[in-house]
């Protein structure tokens, strides 16, 4: 509907250009907004005020000329000029009625568009380090990223969903070493587990697999492992003033593991930990309704030479300098707060060097738009990544970083802790089992991504109107129940074709529903282009409320067959839009509750 009116305005603009009243080489995109007060019409545009100076005339005069040039349309009842030059459009009654057969005819395609046709977008999201199971904080990024990707696809973009696997670097070495130390304990070795190791039960499980399948083949005397290591920081039960350096201690253990096991055996333990957790992450995300076109390995960047290539390109353009044996990227030249190390003095490339190579690769793959979805704690990373893209000669504006605040989970009024290292966290799998996939997906995207989210488990499980996902799903189920009741009464509910009988929809509740239904494509487009899934959840709650109010005020299966036909059509349209919207969020549409 909105696009139809935009097309009418564009035609009027072209008419004024052809008449010589406007000198435009390219027609501007008309800005058309829904009015907040329906007494001012349904839509309004400020186009006359925007172009008045160019037309060398008063805004109201230009508005009048635009109105006179508008083609006749059955959609429009009247057009008025308001204030300094706003043009207000009042839709004809039939325009609202026409949305019902449109919805029933197009079905699942209602709300889809081709706004982004011909444009490729990459959405990279979650990308949690494979050092432990996904927790409820990761779940929000997963739900948000998946819905953003699906919304973009719904409006025509070619969307590539990607997970960046951090399968290289120190954290993975800490995981591999943690698995090996737990394995040694299972072999009967007595040792003090490092304060900076991964302590979750999942580490024991991986170590148990290693022990079950290989016995003592990887066993080394604990005294050899811990010989001549820097002291660890104190752990629970030890004096707090005990001297020690947990970082130096864990690095010493990693070096000992590599030396005592040798390359092949150490790599086996490393890969066992990585692949076990990565398989678990894949399964968790798939069961949460999140799938990817690509799982991109960080290690592949080093193995393919992409990291070295990126560093050499920066060096060749004069953006790399050496200081105290390390290589630094001069990111301050592009607005970053300080320069960044890309190669340490020991010759090892940093995480940032891999990130530069990864984003260089993204740009070279030809995406028109690259969307990174990160946790809010990574906000400081944005300037340095964009600086690197600029230094490489790329268009940093093609990269959009969306920050997602972690969700804070409450159970019984108490906040759950989330720490992968300590193992004290609530997993996404546990959350899904407790409240269900539908509630988790809906709750995660109810607010803007940058807003904090307090996830109330009790509310998510409740069967009440206060639970937003239950309230929306119940509206869908209620429509289905009406159809079952009709079948039980032997009433024919096969709706008549087209707009037949819809003129009988004159009740205020019906007019409200029609106005809400007609907005759905606009909401989908706006939510997609602004990466704001909460717009869709808010719309669905509004539509559900409009329906429940209608349901409580009127009978649908009335004796008047014409009126019954019109009302059945209307609620079938409501059911279809609820189903379409819930589907975009990854939530089911139950037929009974």
Written overview of the protein:
Helix content is 50%, strand content 12%. With 593 residues, it is α/β, with parallel strands linked by helices. Among the domains are: 2-91, Arginyl tRNA synthetase N-terminal domain (Gyrase A, domain 2, 2-Layer Sandwich); 170-286, no CATH class; 304-389, no CATH class; 464-585, Orthogonal Bundle (Isoleucyl-tRNA Synthetase, Domain 1). A 5-stranded parallel sheet has the order 7-6-5-11-12. Helix 6 crosses helix 16 (437-444). The longest helix is centred in the middle third of the chain and has 42 residues, at 246-287. The radius of gyration is 30 Å and the shape is flat. The mean pLDDT is 93.
Number of strand segments = 15
Shape: flat
Give the N-to-C terminal Cα separation.
34 Å
Low-pLDDT parts are none
What share of the residues lie within helices? 40-55%
CATH C-level name of one domain:
Mainly Alpha
- How much strand? 5-15%
Name the strands of the widest sheet in spatial order: 7-6-5-11-12
Total helix count?
21
CATH topology of one domain: Isoleucyl-tRNA Synthetase, Domain 1
Mean pLDDT: 93
